[in-house]
Write a structure and sequence with these properties.
heterodimer; A: 2 domains; globular; B: about 260 residues; alpha/beta; 6-stranded mixed beta sheet; 4-stranded antiparallel beta sheet
Amino acid sequence: MNLLNKWLMQAVLLPAPLYRRMGADVVLVKTILATKLTLDDRTPNTMQQLQRKGASKPAKAATLGAMFMSAIMGLLYLSAFALGQDVVTQLTIYFFMFFVLLSSMLIADFTSVLLDVRDNTIILTRPVNDATFLTARLLHILIHLTKLVLPMSLPGVVYIGYNYGVGMALWFLVPVVLLILFSIFFINALYLVFMRMVSPQRFQAIISYVQIGMAIGIYASYQVVPALMNRFDGLNLQVGNYWFAPLLPPFWFASVWQVLHAPLAGWEKAGLALGLFIPLLAIWVVVRYLAGAFIQQLTLSANRNAETPVSNKTSAGHPSGLAEKIARILTPQGLQRAGFLFAWKMSGRSRDFRMQVLPAIGYLLVFAGITLFRALSKNNFSAFNDRGKALVLSVLYFGTYVLVVALGQMKFSDKWKASWVFYATPLHQPGPLIVGGFKALVAKFYLPLALLIFLVGTVFAGPLMIPNILLGLANQLLIGAVLVYVNQREFPFSVPQQTQNRGVNVLRSIMVLLFTGLLGAGHYLLYSNLPVILICLLLSAAATWTVVNSIANISWDKIKRADV
Amino acid sequence: MEPIISLKQVNKSYGTKQVLHDINLDIFPGQVIGYIGPNGAGKSTTVKILCGLLTDYTGQVQVAGVEVKADPLAVKKLVGYVPELADLYEVLTPWEYLEFVATLQGMEPSVYETRIQRMVEAFGLRDNLHQRMDSFSKGMRQKVLLISGILHNPGIIIFDEPLSGLDANSVILVKELISRLAREGKTIFYCSHMMDVVEKVSDRIVLISEGTVVADDTFANLQQRMGQQHLEQIFSSLTKHQQPGSSADELLRAFENNNAL
């Protein structure tokens, strides 16, 4: 165990007599905690996995990377101090960001690190009582939190210290601790509610959607907030003056800090009272009620999975959903259709895939929406002046990003070992399977967006835009197809995610960006010249067709054999 | 003789689904019980109740005279549980893992240190004692699990598919181990799908199907009663109704009419 863990463990075990009084066996608590911290430290993060040469070389201090990331996030929160008129408002925004990001990180860690289902068979089959197990788990969570929160709050502490003095910086830690207690309660309650309704697997899927939503939200807020700030510049926004302020937990914590800084005004007194009372009440509720139910729920859900018979709802015969219908239109029968259906279904059911592609779609929608909004709010907008051209083309070509991400992700899967089927079956040529996968991803992730862009573009810019939009869309397909032809030397979903070589990835992204930029720039120059655009459209479509055919002809000797 | 494990009228449901119906079983010290049944029959649930992991059943479950519901901790001290593969903290070394488990069982270092050394050596893992288990084969991990189940010298040992992933030599070792443990008076509760092994190691077979005990006797008596030679056949005829259409006949019939490819 490293020094940091050792210190933290000693610190959290200081109230040992109290734990003992609560019925916990402190020796066992210490044993479980030490083991858990060792496990944490040896579960490498992605960066370390890449650097690791051999499995025998231990991954050390995996948590240091995570701590560094939290410090970066802490720096990000400082942007709150550029907003708002008074320090309480600024702190409210600061604590809001803190709360949201901390909670989302914790939700992710809860499922993977803190609520290890293996504990059910390894620890709960041993003579360890509930109080011991619970205490160990809570202390583990506490240490985990400390490692996240210390670096995360450091920039804030420094900022406060610089502006308000050392005393206020130290006092700043009090609302931070209260905020942490409140976050624990919030997440515990959230988990309990969800776990009553859905299985842990389903819950993890929901969490991943939440994370995707947050990524998109952060992106959107970076696009929107500066504009909003300009608009509200004249307003004297002081959150404490509004009746709803005490309903906002971040405001409570801001009020707690304020009490030693200046006389409380407006609703700040209510905020102070709530800020001191609610977190303590919340943590009492967690210890007294939630945690026990929580663990019971966990054990139950683990067991439920073990003995629930597979449902026999599905009817016999060939399924015919949307995927099958589209496959019939886009692919000939045989290998290509098999590749299409395989990629369509795998991409919908693999978490990794979702986590990569859905945010890209979200970014595109946000970007397109904001661009459209800005364009419409200007009176003199026309799709054919320079500004209009640039806007239309940037939305069009930004769409390439979605396609590139989806296609780039096609070969990766955490179930890559199952790709032995490709090698064990008498396949003449891998090409048709890959082209089927290409078509599936295009149909699934690109066509709906293309249709949307097409409709919105036509409605807002008139039918004269149609050739331009079509050229843009054809060019994107061309980029996607070239990318697959050059890059996809593996079967769909046959490569483990972690072998993804960052360097090559960056290089690939730069190439794609250059290529896209080049096509976009060319398009910009020809934009108003309709006959040339039409000719280019034909050329681009023909080129796409040729490249797709070449993908279909990829032969065995071009395939990098997966190590299955 | 007093039974060491006694289940009376045990029922257990998950939500509206009842997985155990009125289970009654008396198991005596030194018996090796082969506990078999199709997937989803309720085997794991029974095992979890006996390990003290599930206490929300109805009826009576006593282990060495202790009601499981009343004092699960006391029961956990008496029972050793070897779960089905994979439930291990793979990034630990066998030594770290076994030391952890031993501490949880309340063992003293002076006792577990030599015991771990000896057991690891007996399983041929001495050279791997301080290597992380994430590089281990299935069989090596299974051996560590086996050790972790018997390390505290429990009177009752529950094996859940203990042979999965083991090579032939290790299978022989484990089978030998089971009969030796039984001879020393330990009670073995052996869950498995490998009928030939169950047939050989158990001196009493309990077959559970859809949450109900459908057979409970010695293998010889079952053979006689059912008029069948192998446990596989007995199992199949007692549980067949549960899996309609799983016969080989039907499988082969699928080739009819389009034999080509």
